[in-house]
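Following up on my earlier thread - several people asked me to post the actual chain instead of describing it. Fair enough. Here it is, all 319 residues.
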Amino acid sequence: MHIHSLHKWKHAHDFTIFNRLGERKTKQVIALTASTMVIEIAAGLVYGSMALLADGWHMGTHVAALGITVFAYRYARRHADNPYYSFGTGKVSVIGGYASAIALAVVALLMAVESILRLISPQAIQFNEAIAVAFVGLGVNLVSAFILHGHHQRDHEYRANNAHPGHDHNLRAAYLHVLADTLTSMLAIIALLTGKAFGWIWMDATMGIVGAVVISRWSYGLLRDTAEILLDGAVDPETVSAIRSAIESDADTRVADLHVWQVGPDHVAAIISVVTHYPRSPKHYKEIVSRFGDISHVTVEVNQAQGESCLLTQSMRVP
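Reply from S.P.:
Thanks for posting it. Predicted structure:
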């Protein structure tokens, strides 16, 4: 057999999302966030507001996290056809989301620690100046959230038309960072307004703790979802069970080994080992699996069973 004729039998391993629109919009948000970060950190130091400092710190870490998002898109695109990666670079966006989730967790921890210290040792706040800057930060965050949310909706519609809809965890992480900034800005405004009106300086630090708790929950959710994919966790157990049942309903076939997992946000792979007295070609079993949607990469091992067929034994028992 000529070696060139083997190409048609090769599996495709490009499971990468080419989300150029998401990448471009993320760059726009980075520019907005970085500009506001400098303003808020400076204002927080000058006016003595923990809420403003927390918002500025968020923006600083989120600029870095959003940078991870852009890097992940670019790296996945450049190495999509690199044979060094056995199942392509589809998980690069998931790694980006995981790294961003860790950044969120670190920010939440720093917020909580600093807020507790401010509760123990309150500091004077120049409310008028701090409130003005907080509203500027909120405006920027709302614009950033709108930029990414508009794309998130289109991305969702795209995924809905695929057999195995997944999540662009890279874009989700960027969106969560922007939401965290928006939440922190809102809490800062609440703290500053109530502090000015009623003299409740402690509200500034309290809102920092509230923000830390909420952001920690977002971080945990993203860590859980991305870690499951990175560790090759199985897809929906019901789907796996249905695939097993469909294969085992064919003659006397039994599934000795079955693995179904995500290799990219919208791509699923399967490795199946069957044992039967009536072996068919791997293509036959792949066609059975294809009933459950477009599984991107399927590998089938067919093993000849030893001994007497259970179907033959059952037919002999029929009177």
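The two ends are 51 Å apart (CA to CA). That should answer part of your original question.
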